[in-house]
Design brief:
alpha/beta, Rossmann fold, Histone, subunit A, 5 strands, 50% helix, 9% strand, globular
Amino acid sequence: MSVLAIFGPTASGKTAVAEALAQRMPAEIVSADSMQVYRGLPILTNQGAGRLVGIWPTDRQRTVGEYQGLAHAAVDEALAEGRTPIVVGGSGLYLRAALVDLGLPPHVPEGERARWERLYDRFGGAVAHALLRERDARAAGQLHPNDRRRVVRALELWSAGASLAPASSRLWTSETRHPTTIVGLDVPGELLDERIVERTRAMFDQGVEHEVREAGHVAPRILGLEAVLTLPPQEAAREIIRATRRLAAYQRKWMRRIPGVVMVDAGRPVDEVANAILEVARTRQQLPAR
């Protein structure tokens, strides 16, 4: 059996399409969204059905490395049980992590980062950068001495036996852990903008303000959280719409870089989109009918 992956910008209808597909064949939806993994904010993060949705508390920012192991396990379990994993999301890095073994850098203890931060602050960027150049010339060649955050990150990765600039990266490789069809949802810009506005208004109608207040302290960076907490409702909605438009533009650029992506017109009803994707997947993968 094979994997079906669906990527698209925010408000392109990914969740609805994935759920429609799951009704058409034996399938397991696996979320690949960097914000939907946190629980307590289902309205703000537009959570739907599937594995790896609302699994983590919001006490700290999680990493793609923590997500990757869970995603691989979910995909493998679905395949072992004879179901097609439908990996769906708008977080490009999380989607790739679910499909590919990215070879992510090892975890570095917080104390190690603090050590390099102290060195940078005491001796300055030029000295820290020169030290990095002696240890990892490739990484140093890509960084400016004044870029404190990345110089420190490069030094701590070097101390863990890794590099900020590895000789090769699997992020854009066409190889996947399992045979996979990757579909990109292509929505005309004007229609996508309308959907973003509609979805933002619906969030406030559904009570996103109460949800955010009840969530308490939220460590992860989640789009719209600060706006809802600090602005009057109308201003918050406008800010969320602006931020979501920027995110969608970035996601559309990322989508077109995915190796082997098959673009599908998603500016039509959900059932038509699901049927079109199913036809593509069956042609490529010989998927079973339900």
